[in-house]
Amino acid sequence: METSALFEALSGFVATREWRYIYPVWSRRAQGISIGINLHPNHCCNWHCVYCQVPGLQRGPSPVIDSQLLQQELADCLGWLTHHIHDSIYSLHDCVQDIAFAGDGEPTTSPQFADILDMVAHLMQQRKPHDRPACLRLITNGSQLQHAHIQHALKRLHEMGGEVWFKLDAGNDGEMLAVNDTHLPLALHLQRLQTCCTLCPTWVQTAIFSRTLHGESVTTPTLPGYMEALLPLKQRISGILLYGIARPSQQDLRGCIQATSEKILEKYASTLRTQGFRVRMFV
Ligand code: SF4
């Protein structure tokens, strides 16, 4: 079975379940099937990004996670995949790009994040290498990297061969506020990115889009500030994932943001490559 057909069949199976924490998706950035772990089914996040696709996003505390249930849902998902890949020439490792902590809020704000990461790591270790997803990944806004327990968890992620995708959408403090709705200064965010790189392989992920400012359309992040922010980290980050807005934002009710053209994304990518960055682009 082709991977895309496998994903369709898996989606059909998931539609018959009422899973709370596990959600397989077709990931354009991971380029295949991704098994998402959602630690915020209450749609609460500590940031409020203008392009966020989470419906009903709100600020609020992380919910208590039923970790037994989460483990059961993940085991069911992997069990279904193993069963349906069984007669294929492909292995689960070939078909499933990652297990990704992502979801409807910032994963690292959950007090149970580290424990659940350990549980997932343990589950992976019990499976044969060809019968595990290719990677364990954390998609994060990086806002909790100053905490020792999160740093410890990222070391564990590294031991598991995992990686981090760290959000950076701004080239100055004003853009951090306008895009991510956080008063966190860019300099502090960059310190956390640097810390993250020392703990686990880290890709920077950046959304590029246009927004209307004083009647004019500007592309965010502004390239000079963004470049200046990243140049000192060039040798530390694994690379940059640049992506455009593919689906409508659930937060931008006044229609202030627009997708950028492929040409603009290419301009960002080629400028960054000229400076020696490894760049992957997703239109
Ligand atoms: S950090 Fe992620 S979940 Fe939170 S508002 Fe931004 S895009 Fe949405």
Total E-strand runs: 11
CATH superfamily annotation: Aldolase class I
As a percent range, the share of strand residues is: 15-25%
- Under CATH, the topology can be stated as TIM Barrel
Low-pLDDT stretches are none
The number of distinct structural domains comes to 1
CATH class category: Alpha Beta
User: Helicity range of the residues?
Assistant: 25-40%
**Succession of helices and strands:** HEEHHEHEHEHHEEEHEEHE
Neighbour order of strands in the largest sheet = 1-2-3-4-5-6-9-11
Plain-language structure description:
The structure is a single chain. Helix content is 37%, strand content 20%. The protein has 283 residues and is α/β, with parallel strands linked by helices. The strands form 2 sheets. Strands 1-2-3-4-5-6-9-11 form an 8-stranded mixed β-sheet. Helix 4 (113-125) packs parallel to helix 5 (148-159). The model has no long low-confidence stretch (mean pLDDT 94). It binds iron/sulfur cluster. Residues 45, 47-49, 52, 54, 57, 105-106, 141 line the site of iron/sulfur cluster (SF4).
Short description:
The protein is an alpha/beta fold and 283 residues long. Helix content is 37%, strand content 20%. The chain has an eight-stranded mixed β-sheet.
Comma- or semicolon-separated keywords:
283 residues, TIM Barrel, 9 helices, 37% helix, binds iron/sulfur cluster
